[in-house]
Design goal:
This protein has one helix and two strands; from the N terminus they run E-E-H. The chain is α+β, with helices and mostly antiparallel strands. The protein has a two-stranded parallel sheet with strand order 1-2. The radius of gyration is 14 Å and the shape is elongated.
Length: 58
């Protein structure tokens, strides 16, 4: 899960938050950061997904 917010301090330290600027909102830079995170997450899931579809950490 990933949160998109202009106040990342509202989340636990281990939460994934795409911090946006409160003036500009969700801009091109925010979209790029979110896209990079989702691409990384998708690759991780495919790389370590077992036959039952569960994530494994070998």
């Amino acid at each position: 899960m990933v949160a998109i917010d202009d106040i990342p301090e509202h989340y636990p330290p281990d939460a994934t938050v795409v911090a946006i600027d409160d003036y500009n909102g969700f801009d091109q830079n925010s979209a790029k950061v979110l896209s990079e995170y989702l691409t990384w997450f998708q690759r991780l899931g495919k790389k370590y997904r077992n036959r039952e579809g569960e994530l494994t950490w070998k």
